[in-house]
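Q: I'm building a small set of examples for a reading group on sequence design. Run inverse folding on the following structure and report the sequence directly after it, with nothing in between.
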């Protein structure tokens, strides 16, 4: 099979670097172009990343000599992953979609647009159909598909089997979010060392709104929000990678802890599609009472799983548990790549 050429917009940032790492030797996609701001453009990726590569020992060999371009819709690859800062992503992504490109975006700008899928392949693959409406509404040749906020994605994956099997009425989530979630250089070291910051601008609103859309249903060419209550509290903590989320839920049907664990372990709706980035188990349930922990568990299933532990009764709502997930892999670049793989098998990249 000929690989599909792809580009990465925002290739120099925290999420962009993950794309470079995860696309190395991808069986279906070949990264041929990287783009970033004017200040990074014009040099090779290796030159522009001197002192800025943050996620592993070395920049993968295949990407070193790629020339960094500006984020203008004159790239040769018609499929682009966007890891752009949200201050510019909105317009740039629209510009690409208008000009016929397929944009898989990590940014929040278009996530809540009515005709843009906020896609998690295990949860709402049918929402992809909205791109047909999007192209029609906007008279675009291309389209935009988004993946959720890095906190929302992990507990939403865990909520899906609960929604399907027992019904959801109320969800409360408190996050402890890693530093890499704020991009580079992110929070100043003197602000976060020995500290927890109980505020991340706009995050709680995003997590609440996105959850209702992700778990909503597609009817009459519209995504109808899920009708349960969600309340989020988001905190920045002194951890490199991996968001930890304490979640309590009120369910419609009565159940017990064993049934909840069973529903999570059995949850694997993508099994038959064999997508290259799909984790064997999207939800990994841990038994140890002091897990999951970011340092130990963020790389389970190569960072593509949502790891759950401490499933127990809650004396206010019904049940509570802890979810952990890698924020720049399944919470960002890995999620986008999985979305693109789903688009490929569903014929959206032809
Ligand atoms: N970090 C996470 O865990 C995470 C998770 C989910 C979603 N996201 C979202 O993903 C996006 C990227 O996040 P990040 O953490 O990787 O941010 P980041 O480290 O700050 O990187 C931002 C990227 O945007 C580029 N950029 C900035 N201004 C630009 C301009 N005017 N024109 C073209 N390119 C420009 C930067 O290029 P230069 O280097 O050339 O400035 C860089 O490549 C954001 O929208 C963020 O909200 C992040």
């Amino acid at each position: 099979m000929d690989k599909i050429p792809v580009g990465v917009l925002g290739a120099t940032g925290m999420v962009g670097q993950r794309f470079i790492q995860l696309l190395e030797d991808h069986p279906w996609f070949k990264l041929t172009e990287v783009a970033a701001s004017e200040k990074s453009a014009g040099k090779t990726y290796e030159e522009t990343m001197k002192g800025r590569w943050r996620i592993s020992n070395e920049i993968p060999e295949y990407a070193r000599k790629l020339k960094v371009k500006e984020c203008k819709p004159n790239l040769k690859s018609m499929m682009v992953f966007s890891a752009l800062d949200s201050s510019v992503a909105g317009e740039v992504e629209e510009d690409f979609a208008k000009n016929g490109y397929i944009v898989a975006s990590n940014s929040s700008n278009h996530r809540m647009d009515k005709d843009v899928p906020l896609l998690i392949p295990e949860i709402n693959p049918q929402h992809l159909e909205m791109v047909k409406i999007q192209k029609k509404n906007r008279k675009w040749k291309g389209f935009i598909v988004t993946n959720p906020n890095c906190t929302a994605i992990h507990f939403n994956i865990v909520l899906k089997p609960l929604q399907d099997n027992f019904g959801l009425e109320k969800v409360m989530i408190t996050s402890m979010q890693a530093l890499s979630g704020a991009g580079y250089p992110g929070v100043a070291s003197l602000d976060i060392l020995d500290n927890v910051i109980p505020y991340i601008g706009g995050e709680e609103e995003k997590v609440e709104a996105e959850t209702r859309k992700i778990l909503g249903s597609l009817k009459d060419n519209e995504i109808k929000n899920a009708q349960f209550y969600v309340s989020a509290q988001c905190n920045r903590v002194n951890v490199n990678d991996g968001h930890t989320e304490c979640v309590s839920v009120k369910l419609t049907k009565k159940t017990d802890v064993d049934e909840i664990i069973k529903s999570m372990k059995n949850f694997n709706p993508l099994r038959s599609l064999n997508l290259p980035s799909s984790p064997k188990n999207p939800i990994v349930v841990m038994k140890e009472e002091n897990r999951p922990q970011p340092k130990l568990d963020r790389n389970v299933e190569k960072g593509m799983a949502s790891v759950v532990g401490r499933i127990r009764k809650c004396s206010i709502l019904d049940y509570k548990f802890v979810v952990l997930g890698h924020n720049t892999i399944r919470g960002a670049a890995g999620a986008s790549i999985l979305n693109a793989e789903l688009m490929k098998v569903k014929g959206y990249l032809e």
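The chain has a mean pLDDT of 97.
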